[in-house]
Amino acid sequence: MSKDTSRPESTRSPSGDARVNPATLVAFDDLPVLEALGLQHAWTVLDRDLGTLQKCSEQTVQAALSSARSGTVVNLNLPITEPDPPLFGRSPVEHEIFYPDRNTLDDRLDAFYPQSSSQWDGLRHVRAREHGFFGGWTDAFPAGGGPLGMEHYAEHGIVGRGLLLDVVAHRARQGRDYDPLSGETIHADELREIVAAQQIDLRPGDVLCVRTGWIEAYRALEVEARLAIAETIRVSGLAGSEDVARFLWDSHAAAVAADNPTVEVAPGDAAVGSLHRRLIPMLGFAVSELLDLERLAGLCAADGRWDFLFVAVPLNIPGGISSPANAVAIR
To answer: What are the distances in angstroms from CA 90 to CA 85, 116, 141?
Structure first.
């Protein structure tokens, strides 16, 4: 069986916008469980091709506009050449500038991995073993566009109220030592503490941006240390636990983003589980990694306001697995 056909493949109107359905707000503990893996899933709850982005409705987008108060625009994207060297064995991007004729300059990219810098994981990125991708899709993907492809994210757009959950600032307030490069685990209860300390109210359709401090720490390294990280990834990040998945799902967020390469702690603990597996093929989460949250964090800390308008336009790659983030925060 290629997929769960009991679930409507699309709950979108003919105009292409996703309508908020109260059924998408079911509590984590009330979700069905795939017994073979012991994991909750949202295959019968969310649109197959949008996943949690279905929670970005016309209504939530309109409400999010009020978070853009000063008009300050903050770029959240690293240069496409960072991290340098690339992680996970990827090749460096090659950028060639050339004259196609005497009066025109052109350029092109080669060896370009859409996931190598600030990026979105698409719903084709991770599967749940033999049980398939989000929605239970186990068939081969057709050539070009189709089920779970990045073009669906691009068509819908990723727009909502962004919330910065600042782990670095929270640890500093508590006087706790913390190293973003050490492989330290951030548990769900700490995320709940941050929400309370920052006096944040979580709303459906939010984009949760978790600042682990990885970018700032990485940029402070010498070349030799960066080479070592490229060989052996060690990242402080979210636990791969059911409770983190519960916190994220019950926040009713449309997406979760982080400033580290993995969102979750790396190396992970097999006994705890994989957050990527919980979030992407099981819950249909839109996940972004390697966002540059440093300037945004400074602005948020300066006025004690942690919300902003989050806007991202993934590349319209038919059948794409991933995309550069193309994200900004507007305060």
So the answer is: 9, 7, 23
Alpha carbon dihedral 229, 231, 235, 241, in 10-degree steps, equals: 180
pLDDT, one tens digit per residue, over 179-236 is 999 999 999 999 999 999 999 999 999 999 999 999 999 999 999 999 999 999 999 9
Contact at 8 Å (CB) between 160 and 150?
Answer: no
147: cis peptide before it, omega within 30°? Answer: no
3-state SS, one letter per residue, for the chain = CCCCCCCCCCCECCCCCECCCHHHHCCHHHCCEECCCCEECCCCCCCCCCHHHHHCCHHHHHHHHHHCCCCCEEECCCCCCCCCCCCCCCCCCEEEEEEEECCEEEEEEECCCCCCCCEEECCCCCCCHHHCECCCECCCCCCCCCCCCHHHHHHHCEEEEEEEEEHHHHHHHHCCCCCCCCCCEECHHHHHHHHHHCCCCCCCCCEEEEECCHHHHHHCCCHHHHHHHHHCCCECEECCCHHHHHHHHHCCCCEEEECCCCCECECCCCCCCCHHHHHHHHCCCEEEECCCCHHHHHHHHHHCCCEEEEEECCCCCCCCCEEECCEEEEC
Gap between the Cα atoms of 9 and 170, Å rounded: 41
Q: Is 39 exposed, middle or buried (0-12, 13-18, 19+ CB in 10 A)?
A: buried
pLDDT tens digits, residue range 40-66? 999 999 999 999 999 999 999 999 999
Count other C-beta atoms under 10 Å from residue 13's C-beta: 10
List phi, psi (to 5°) of 74.
-120, 120
User: What residue type is 274 in one-letter code?
Assistant: S
pTM: 0.92
